[in-house]
Specification:
The protein has 239 residues and is an alpha+beta fold. The protein folds into two domains: 2-56, no CATH class; 81-233, Reverse transcriptase/Diguanylate cyclase domain (Alpha-Beta Plaits, 2-Layer Sandwich), CATH 3.30.70. It has helices at residues 2-9, 21-71, 81-93, 95-99, 116-123, 125-142, 166-182, 209-225, and strands at 107-113, 148-153, 156-161, 196-202, 231-233. It has a five-stranded mixed β-sheet, with helices on both faces. The longest helix is centred in the N-terminal third of the chain and has 51 residues, at 21-71. The radius of gyration is 34 Å and the shape is elongated.
């Protein structure tokens, strides 16, 4: 309407292809309707852009959720076996790790909940699932910010401790042992007691991920064979 008014004001100043009043009126009407149409189109485009932004945000949230599900165990929300293996591979491939000293080399611990089959048999699989969830929470709360904990399978877990001496690793595992001992497992099932056996191994120069995990697994097996509810440090290669 403003443009139409300006057109009327400038009729005697601007040459137009219409001279009669009816032609000028039709021209003003056409210009006004065109501007209204352009405004509606601009408003529609703006609304579409807003919807597109909302959809993009929804897709980002969905993608983050899918990525999280792909990298984490559904029951405990810990890293999956594949994810923790990949991150351990990357850690051991870093130049700082390869050039590091024995005192600050990464440590890996394999944790196995003791007599877990009896928990399922005596108290049911729902109780067993709740034990796994609570263990994940208790263990995570005892870790340092940059430590990694993943579910290895069943009642087995793997702990990756960057720049950690075996003594520090053992102290951390003792905190997990203590947290399990102090937790009110009676809330899950009357008389329930949960302990774990752990084997910890420190990475040695040139050692592969598979070899490091084998040493930690052997130490965990020794912990179970010598009474359970304890941590055993793995023997060094060649020892």
């Amino acid at each position: 309407m403003s443009s139409a008014a300006a057109l009327a004001w400038g009729t005697d100043r601007v040459a137009l292809p219409a001279g009669r009043p009816i032609e000028l009126g039709l021209l003003w009407l056409y210009v006004s309707l065109s501007l209204v149409r352009f405004g509606l189109i601009a408003e529609h485009v703006g609304a579409l852009r807003g919807k597109l932004r909302d959809k993009n945000r929804e897709l980002e949230v969905s993608l983050a959720h899918i990525t999280h599900l792909a990298e984490h165990d559904a029951l405990t929300d810990l890293l999956s076996r594949r994810s923790v293996s990949e991150r351990l591979e990357l850690l051991l491939a870093q130049p700082a790790t390869r050039a590091g000293t024995a005192d600050d080399a990464p440590c890996v611990a394999l944790l196995d909940l003791d007599h877990f089959k009896q928990v399922n048999d005596q108290h049911g699989h729902q109780a067993g699932d709740e034990v796994l969830r609570r263990f994940a929470q208790l263990a995570t709360s005892a870790l340092r910010k940059h430590d990694l904990l993943g579910r290895w399978g069943g009642e087995e877990f793997v702990l990756v401790l960057p720049t950690c001496s075996p003594q520090e690793a053992e102290r951390l595992l003792e905190r997990i042992h203590a947290a399990l001992a102090e937790h009110p497992w009676d809330e899950v099932a009357p008389g329930l007691r949960v302990t774990l056996s752990a084997g910890v191994a420190q990475h040695e120069p040139g050692e592969t991920v598979e070899a490091l995990l084998r040493r930690a697994d052997a130490a965990a097996y020794e912990a179970k064979a010598t009474g359970r509810n304890r941590t055993v440090r793995a023997a060094r290669n060649g020892a």
